[in-house]
Structure formats: C-alpha cells, structure tokens
Design brief:
Helix content: 25-40%
Distance between the termini: 40 Å
Oligomer: single chain
Shape: globular
CATH class: Alpha Beta
Amino acid sequence: MIERIYDRQSVTAVSRRFVKSTRPLVIGVGGIGTWVAIFFAMAGVEELILVDPDVVEIHNLNRLPFTLDAVGKPKVEVVKEFIKKIRPNCLVFTYQKRFEEVEQTLLIHDPSVVISTVDDLKTMNEVRKWCEKHKLLLIEANYDYRGDQNDWAFSIVKSSPSNINKLSRWDFEVGEGGYRVIPSYVVPAVLVASLVVHIALHPEFDLYSFIIPSTVIKDLIKQLIIKIA
C-alpha cells in the first residue's frame, strides 16, 4: 500500500532506490528543519535522525503544522509523531539534546547527508568541523529578514567534506548567547526546506551554493504573474 503512494514519483528523476537509501540527519528542528524532516518523509526516506534540545513554543506555530497541544512538548517528538501519522513506515530517531552532547552517538546511524538549520554560531561551526572530520555531506540552510526591503533573503549551501571550510558564510547579527531571532512566517520556512530536500535528493548537485536576495524573488514573482496573466 505504501509504495502505491509513489506511483507518479517513480517516473521522475527522483529515484526510489536513491531516496530509500538516503538517511538524513536534521540538526535543528525549527521552522526550516521541521519541514525538511516532513518533506524527506513524504519523499519516501525510510530513516530520519532529528536533533534539537528545545520544546515547541506558541510563537513557533505560525510556521509549523501543529496544533496548540504541541506547545511545551519536545520539538523532535512532535515532528516524529506527525511523521508517523503520514508515513508510518519511516523510522525516526530523536535526540532532545544539543548537537555537542550527542555528536559521537549520532555516528551509529551512518547518516548519508547532514542538514544544519541551526541559528547558534557555536553549534554551526561544531557541525561543520564534525562533518569534515567524518567526511559527511553537509547542507546548511537559513533565511533572514531584510528590514530595509521588508522581505526575506535565503541561503542554501551544499558541500562535500573536502570543502566544508570553504563554505560561504551567512552574514547575520547575533543576539545574546550567539543566537539570532528574526521575524518569520510559514512561507520562507517552507520555501527553503523544499529546496533543501530537492537538492539533497539530486546527487548530481555535487556542490551547490546560493544566496537569493529578496529583490530577485520579487522579480521572479512579477515575471510569473505577467506570464500567467
């Protein structure tokens, strides 16, 4: 029955064999990371590893598909519960810990790709060093609000272990404790997450890096509207 879900997907460039063999490790299960995990599960991966020490807060719900009773529960467990409802065959491992506390344990899962969506600079750098040391594919994803343009900009970097130290760095100001809080809503989170999963499931993208300013997005939307009209 589950395989019937992918009847139409089987004729696309997203190979079912490749998807099934993909074991994503998602570090940071917030606005982007939650949707990344959900989209991977919907695409058909059979294993997922989620790492995040936090609980769901009321302000998270403006961009996540959860009900009010999720507030106060561990993010990793809420995402796992959601995924099990839509893809019961997907095996989800959860760690309600900081990455630094479980980085050695995570190696037992032998992840094929690491998705980092963390906003903590210290953890971000620890993840980079860890991926380089253990020769793991890394995709970093963020978005940022540009107040002067009243819009968002997006950053996604996919790298091989040999060039992790050469990644373009997302330039943002951090607040107390090296953490940043930005204005947000559901669309930027979903947009970045969907691109991350699409890139991760296309191995021909050996190195992929871009930062899209909001003005480019606006121009693309205008062009699409004109063409459709």
